[in-house]
Write a structure and sequence with these properties.
single chain, globular
């Protein structure tokens, strides 16, 4: 590849990265504050699909995006093991009375019977886990790797993933400046660490399916743990 070709490719990838970051900035408040609940899953998947199209137009391959069929079996295996570990950990915390308070949730208690199965079975796995993993561990990660190296891509995509959670943390925090600040800082820090773990699963397996399954397990099993606590152990 000639120098002008490399420069053109780098410009194309940089432009795609800027577009994806702009999409994230715009969609974050829309998805969290303005989007009606009924549109949460389809709208998020549409946004993730748009991000994948942008990456593909910039030259990212299915392998680079972690969406290649050859790596799917390994992604499923790594994801299944990760989900099992998460499930055991959540069950252990729920069963220990001293730690059970971590899963007490007024929001879960207020959800309807329909929401008690729809949220952990559909909304979280598809509308949150698949959506966010396509954005952060597939598209954003692939574009960053094109510009830097894997280590930088893991760190930078995880930082953006943490910042992505500022709005929902702010929205769900208790009243008071201190409570809001604590919730935001704590949520960003925790989700940055989670982002690193999800990215490492994606790198190790070669498939974003692994991080999708781990992400879905963390969120869905946590919801189910809270449901068990508020309905049966509270």
């Amino acid at each position: 590849m000639t120098a002008p070709d490399r420069l053109e490719q780098r410009l194309r990838v940089t432009t795609a990265l800027a577009l994806v970051l702009f999409l994230l900035v715009v969609w974050n408040p829309v998805g969290n504050l303005l989007l009606p609940g009924a549109f949460y899953v389809p709208a998020n998947i549409a946004v993730a699909g748009l991000a994948v199209v942008i990456a593909r137009l910039a030259g990212s391959t299915w392998v680079e995006l972690g969406l290649d069929r050859e790596t799917l079996p390994r992604g499923l295996r790594v994801g299944a093991v990760s989900a099992l570990v998460v499930g055991v950990a959540v069950a252990a915390v729920v069963l220990v009375p001293a730690f059970r308070s971590f899963f007490e949730s007024d929001a879960v208690a207020a959800d309807s019977g329909l929401e008690h199965w729809f949220i952990p079975a559909v909304r979280i796995p598809i509308g949150t886990a698949v959506f966010e993993e396509l954005l952060f561990r597939s598209v954003l990660f692939a574009l960053l790797v094109r510009l830097r190296d894997v280590r930088v891509a893991v760190i930078m995509s995880s930082i953006v993933f943490g910042l992505w959670h500022i709005v929902p943390a702010w929205e769900s925090a208790a009243d008071g400046a201190g409570a809001i600040a604590g919730a935001v800082v704590g949520t960003v820090a925790i989700t940055m660490v989670a982002g690193v773990i999800f990215a490492l699963l994606r790198v190790r397996s070669g498939s974003v399916v692994a991080s999708m399954m781990a992400h879905a397990a963390v969120n869905s099993f946590s919801y189910l743990g809270a449901l068990v606590v508020v309905e049966h152990l509270g």
